[in-house]
Design brief:
4-stranded mixed β-sheet, single chain, 4-stranded antiparallel β-sheet, elongated, alpha+beta
Length: 586
Amino acid sequence: MILQALYDYYLRRQAEADPGHRLPAFGLEQKEIGFILEVDDGGQLHAIIDTRQMSGKKKIGTVYLVPKGVKKTSGIAANLLWDNAEYVLALPDVKKMDLARSKGGADEYLARLVEMQQAFRDRISTLPELAQNDAGLRGVLAFLDANPADQVARFAAHAEIAASNPVLTFRLVEDTALVCQRPGVAPHLVAGAPEDETGEEADGVNAMCLITGDTLPVERLHTSIKGVWGAQTSGANIVSFNLDAFNSYGKSQGANAPVSQAAAFAYTTALNALLARDSDQRVQIGDASTVFWAQKPDALEHELAALLGGGDNPDAHTLQVKAVLEAIHSGGFSGARGENAFYVLGLAPNAARISIRFWHAAPVHVIAERIAAWFDDLSLVRGPNDPEFPSLFRLLTAVALQGKADNIPPSLGGDLIRSIFTGAPYPTTWLNAAVQRCRAEQEVTYMRAAAIKAFLNRSFTTSDSQPREIHPMLDIESPSTAYRLGRLFATLEKIQEEASPGLNATIRERYYGAASSTPVAVFTTLMRLKNHHLAKMQSKGRAVNFEKLLAEIMSGISDFPVHMNLPDQGRFAIGYYHQRQDFFTN
């Protein structure tokens, strides 16, 4: 189901009218190229073009459409008309050379570089004679035969190339297209590609493709998937059989789960495009890299990441969420649009593999309704500087130690995303983390209160006929003892603040943890302190108002519990937060 949906998405993107949005055809890929070597048809190097631009703290090469790369292994496997400086120039990588010298293997490394460059030239030689007659290809072959490393050494970019071993390709002088994109070369590139992407001879296995149903040559090793946070930088695989224990019925590698070469190219190209650095169809939440797409084009697949992630502009994010909510209420997701299939795929790293954290398929209208339910669960009275629609990232860091992303509880982000899209209860680890942060820091923030409210309401109500347990604003009718105790604690703190203005610390810093978990141990003491604080108030009318409020709160509390479980500690936090917000607004 997953591979089929990705395959269909590839076909959809291949049919795009806009060439800039179209995915590469079979045998091609989008690749970041660091430097372009400009040569003439006689092989003379005229210029080295640095295509890189600053992105964050490092330089990133410009993306070009080039022949699909081989899967690099411990052996020698060259790409067609592009590769790193070791393959193209036989130029030693500075770090690798230093390491080889330290181990006494410098000569072996240099000999291997010669073999690598020969493999690069041999790949080009496999192209048909029509391609070999192209002026650009003649120039590349002549350059490779004329001490290319010495030619590059004449240019200032030589030091940078030797230090970083970047990806290189070729362009004919005064031409606008790369050599591999020239009309005389491009049509022949697939013919020059090896049947097996490692550069080895394919074993010729034909089988029924699990995706298309056609009997075709099977892809032995699938293309690596890149862009999954925490996975190997060289990429990892969803489909792989790299140990004998994974083989069945005498089959090996891809023959265990036969996928044709074209279908494997399609699904891996689609997934890599969704995971690309500049993709607006992915969101990183905790350790889960989540991508989403629709069966047919829909604006939601380009809006969803911003809806959940928040984006860089808070005002734009708020307007975007409101627009989606308005579309739901006005029927914008009804009819054919609402029935369009929508897919959500969560991926997590697992050594050289990628594990599927979750997979969810549902009509667009269901996805939109669940996004609306998510923000409804979070809806809570807030201060003037708190966002109306908090982002997932801020909600997660709010419950992490020191507010750092690195300290977000493992798997929480992925579990939370899964709950959002499936409508299932939110993970208990979310409630536990929020309550523990409130106790550890003696502070119930807007983000933590929103997380607690969302968890409790999603867990409490299982049908529309049941009332919601916690309202966005203060609920003076709530029968919950824990909620009322939270209100009581907030009121006692407010009395202390008004009786003794300018205090460095209140009862919250000293008693919040015990009051929220073992109320009987501290509330008797706090109630005695309350009498002292009321007596110190200069305004007797204010003291009377507090007495009335305390009486209203206490009317729903029969006794102080010996111990409160985790959900009740959450209700305590919400009661405290609601009452404090009510004091601020009134």
